[in-house]
């Protein structure tokens, strides 16, 4: 069901209580009363459910779930759930989505959900000849794979290609690698792919005369890229004493640093992953898989670099792009089991895994912009630390009724430090 969210920037959402926010979200998304119950402590994952998810369960580990506002993705208003412990990320994403709105928000698309299953083929007498034998039998092998999963076949998924290459230089000498390209539809796809490569391995051994050792999905899902772009009008970039041109050119120079230097690129991409991981996590998807894929893709040319690009268009507006592997699903893993993940998907109103992947790319790009805009102007600490101050106040032992007051005091003093927070608390208690 598509989300009916109206212009989510119209409400000062962050000034509401948690209960009021839930009511606003239900109203904006057109969901039934109670559909977002899973966002509350009473309605989320319980220990009994958790006990069936992993091993040796001893309890639950909760994270804050915030909602990024103002996102327009391909013309549609989207409310974006983000599970993250770090202050200023949700605010930064919401702010940049607001800046992107006048030029239409985010424009995204994604490749078909093609995942790669790898087979490592050892002990062939002549790897190059074995490669050709395998390619000659490609259609027969793909036909065999097609029959493994009738549901996926019915849904329009299944095998798409078999690619074979020889790795000439490895610590154990040359060997053959086959990639089964598999359309996993709305799944992340690890299980379907792993099943398929394990099933066809004996046939691969018979054809090549070799021994198939590893049969496993590759997390470098470079056949399943998600892409997002946005334009920020020059006029909307001015900020404090900084002219729009200074902000734009600062952002471009900050990106150039990441494009050219891996030490900076790691931090730059961490900023992108602040947004990406938070949505991946909120929807019950495997963030290790997305992280591994993203960083491997960033190093694909043999040198680790930025996942995004920033530049200017003919009118001088700022333009940003992000392209990265996005292996996320709507059906498998924890997405179907975790009640909060189910509610998060409903709130976004996504129908396909590809649609979810595109929203995640948009959030990654917005998050990158938030960090670059702050870094290239006032620095990261003012915006970040003023929101971080509440966490420092809690860590210093402030009771709930004093958290906000203490945080404000720390920000005012420009000393967001736990020792100072403890000192202030002691002074208040002795009054
Ligand atoms: C934090 C802001 C947004 C403040 O920015 P500001 O200028 O103080 O904000 P504002 O009060 O003018 O409000 C502007 C908009 O921000 C949002 N906003 C504002 N306050 C809130 C709030 N309390 N709760 C929710 N949303 C908030 C909201 O959308 C609001 O619009 P409105 O709704 O009022 O029309 C800005 O300073 C910012 O974007 N900073 C960067 C945040 C960031 O990148 N955090 C990541 C943590 S640092 C890191 O891990 C990565 C890094 C930095 O190393 C990556 C890298 O190096 O590239
Ligand atoms: N390297 C990695 O990243 C690895 C990750 N994992 C884990 O794998 C999990 C994700 O695996 P995944 O295979 O997605 O999950 P599942 O196997 O749980 O779910 C996918 C299955 O759901 C069924 N299905 C129902 N409807 C659809 C639909 N519309 N589109 C596609 N499939 C549908 C299909 O199974 P059927 O046809 O059989 O009913 C499909 O194979 C994650 O938990 C991840 O952590 C595991 C191993 C390695």
UniProtKB/TrEMBL annotation:
CDD domains: HMG-CoA_reductase_classII. The keyword Coiled coil does not apply. It catalyses: (R)-mevalonate + 2 NAD(+) + CoA = (3S)-3-hydroxy-3-methylglutaryl-CoA + 2 NADH + 2 H(+). Its EC number is 1.1.1.88. Pathway: Metabolic intermediate metabolism; (R)-mevalonate degradation; (S)-3-hydroxy-3-methylglutaryl-CoA from (R)-mevalonate: step 1/1. Keywords: NAD, Oxidoreductase. Pfam families: HMG-CoA_red. GO terms for biological process: coenzyme A metabolic process. GO terms for molecular function: hydroxymethylglutaryl-CoA reductase (NADH) activity; hydroxymethylglutaryl-CoA reductase (NADPH) activity. The keyword Protease does not apply. It comes from the Bacteria. Belongs to the HMG-CoA reductase family. This is 3-hydroxy-3-methylglutaryl coenzyme A reductase. It comes from Ornatilinea apprima.
